Amino acid sequence: MPLGPRSRRWLRATEAWLRADYPVKFPVSVRLAPKVAADPNDTPAARRHGYFGDSYANGRGMIVRISTRKNRTTHQAVETLMHEWAHLRSRRERLKRPHGPLWWRESGRIYEHYMDRGGWERVCRYYKELA
Question: Is the pTM of this model over 0.70?
Answer without folding.
Answer: yes
